[in-house]
Amino acid sequence: MLTCKEQVARSSDYLDGQLTFRERLLVRHHLMFCANCRRFIRQMRLMQATLKILPEPPIADVDALAERLAAERSRDP
Amino acid sequence: MAAADDAHLLERLLKGEQRAYKELVTTYQSAMRAVAYAIVGQRHADEVVQDAWLSVVRNLAKFEGRSSLKTWLLTITANSAKGRYKQNRREVLLDDLPSPHGTIGDDRFVPDDGHWAVAPFAWHQDTPEALLTEDELRNCLEHTLASLSELQSSVLLLRERQGLELEEICNLLTLSLSNVRVLLHRARLKVFATVEHFEETGEC
Asked: Which of A52, A58, B138, B164 has the most C-beta neighbours closer than 10 Å?
């Protein structure tokens, strides 16, 4: 059985589908019996979802850039 | 963006429609910047993105839709970054810079048996939207992202925000899969520690 520490060390690979079949079973088995690690994984997923929607800084001068690129395009058809 | 959308956008771009260029820049520039940032660092990332845009426009007619438009744009950006600065950034890899709220490190576990010594704190919110209603947490996250090494933050953003596959990140940044996995894991644990700290103390 994995320890909590070992489970955490494998957590990213687990979330990214990078574990071998056997290792994936080991993690699942650990999670079945460990509420703390289940919480950890659940909150890792929540953290991922949060980064996904975290607003990005606006792009400076997007209109000027678009204008320049469109002009560049028509110069070189 | 689906292939049909790509094709439609491409058609408008080829006609030189300015609104299409605006759409292109708004949709893809931040992913391009993350790629540039990972390869050449903050100082030169903007120049590389500018170069990449010009190269994109000049080569638009050659885009054949064999990859998605996004993959094509990011490949051009990576090539433009690599061509401009040939320095080897690999040594940066092992730099694990300190982060404002630390990480989930060895001290969280009992040395003898590897159980949690300090169990993960239960967060008050269970959706990303609810978490982000706190402006202070947003700032806190920005602060932590800024504390990561250039490679760590780029890999994290390319994966979580841009949804790239690990394989794609390896190819763009010329990194091994195991390096990408390590970078990603370390970055995630630091961001996790930041959210946990905020949920526990209400402070950044």
From this structure: B164
